[in-house]
Design a protein that fits this description.
mainly alpha
Length: 99
């Protein structure tokens, strides 16, 4: 294919036909552009897909961490509730200061 295009270019230059040569050149540029644009679009699509997968993984990790933190907070709350109930049972004022 490339050798054919080179032959066409050489023939057009020998014939001193600059108008046709420029038309040939523009056609080559158009063919390259038409080849590159879909490749760029596919690459962009793949990158977006990777970002979405990474974002989803991050969200799932955060959900797991929040669940663990909520469980820890509930355990601490239950522990504090037990301390409060024990203190009120013995009528201890927790926050009173002499003075």
């Amino acid at each position: 294919m490339i050798t054919l295009l080179r032959k066409v270019r050489k023939i057009l230059i020998k014939k001193n036909s600059w108008g046709r040569y420029m038309f040939y050149t523009m056609g080559g540029i158009l063919l390259v552009t038409v080849g590159i644009l879909p490749a760029l679009q596919i690459n962009t699509w793949n990158e977006d897909k990777k970002l979405q997968e990474t974002g989803l993984k991050t969200l799932l990790d955060l959900k797991g961490e929040f669940t663990e933190n909520l469980q820890d907070a509930r355990k601490v709350s239950e522990g504090n509730k037990g301390v409060y109930l024990a203190a009120t049972k013995y009528d201890v004022t927790l926050l009173s200061h002499p003075g």
